[in-house]
User: What shape does this take?
Amino acid sequence: MANKLSFAEVNAKMSFVPHWSRTGDLIERTFVFPDFIASMRFVNQMAIEAERTQHHPDILVKYNKVTLGYSTHDAGGLTVKDFDGAAAADAACAI
Assistant: This one.
């Protein structure tokens, strides 16, 4: 199990994912795509990444918008795994 990050550690990690916002023990970002097919392609990429890392985000799809949320529930807050997932999503979106 990953260890929950301290408030200071979370703040430091947020600088590496500048398009993400934090609400309590959750980081999230909404990605906007040209159409529904592009949104679903991204969701599928994230599903593969989540299975590979065994860390799964909350996913909300609204036509051309995909919102991802990360929090490590079994740690009771944010961990390195959440920020790794956010960075992977940012990289997948950049392709």
About this structure: The chain has three helices and four strands. The longest helix spans residues 36-53. Strands lie at 21-23, 26-32, 58-62, 65-70. Residues 28 and 69 are 4 Å apart (CA to CA).
